[in-house]
Write a sequence for this structure.
């Protein structure tokens, strides 16, 4: 099993990146926290990853995280019946993993219901199934923020839409939500990651 990838950052988008290691370019779907903490293109990156296998059709996907703690949260979430990697990634992108751990310990599943793909029953199941497990994961403060460079309005909207699609929304849903939030006066000042997080939280 692959534990981490260390190499040169080749490409970075809102919900994915490419790291070159040993002459191979690894495409990784990552949480917003993981994306935010990476440096500039060309910098050295060390990222904890999880290799997910899918039987039908047979495929493999790498998922990246800001820390080992965040990765452990991801593994716990996908252990819940009916929750796949995309939904788990959306949860940990909308809610910082330290907050997620505290939420589940307290039995507060309501913020989860605002996330795409997570209804009330699913959120309740997450809270019930993980309550005894999640408390064993230590929270930490390794999360750091990296503002995204300003983009032109169309380019910025396109990047947000791509991120939402990769996190489980369909194109029409993503277009509609981005069109609504782009009307805000502070749209161009807000980092892309902050906008995606607000959309995921249903704000």
């Amino acid at each position: 099993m692959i534990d981490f990838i260390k190499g040169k950052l080749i490409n970075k988008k809102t919900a994915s990146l490419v790291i070159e290691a040993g002459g191979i370019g690894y495409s990784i779907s990552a949480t917003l926290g993981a994306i935010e903490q990476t440096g500039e293109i060309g910098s050295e990156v060390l990222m904890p990853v999880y290799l997910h296998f899918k039987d039908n059709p047979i495929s493999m996907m790498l998922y990246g995280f800001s820390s080992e703690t965040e990765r452990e949260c991801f593994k716990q979430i996908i252990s819940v019946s009916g929750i796949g990697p995309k939904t788990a990634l959306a949860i940990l992108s909308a809610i910082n993993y330290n907050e997620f751990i505290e939420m589940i310990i307290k039995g507060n599943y309501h913020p989860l219901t605002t996330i795409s793909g997570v209804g009330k029953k699913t959120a309740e199941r997450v809270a019930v199934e993980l309550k005894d497990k999640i408390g064993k994961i230590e929270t930490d403060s390794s999360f750091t923020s990296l503002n995204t460079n300003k983009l032109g309005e169309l380019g910025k909207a396109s990047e947000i839409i791509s991120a939402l699609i990769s996190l489980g929304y369909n194109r029409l849903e993503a277009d509609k939500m981005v069109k609504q939030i782009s009307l805000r006066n502070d749209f161009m000042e807000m980092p892309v990651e902050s906008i995606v997080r607000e959309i995921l939280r249903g704000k």
The longest strand covers residues 44-54. Confidence is low (pLDDT under 50) at residues 141-151. Helices lie at 32-37, 68-78, 85-94, 97-106, 120-134, 153-166, 171-181, 192-200.
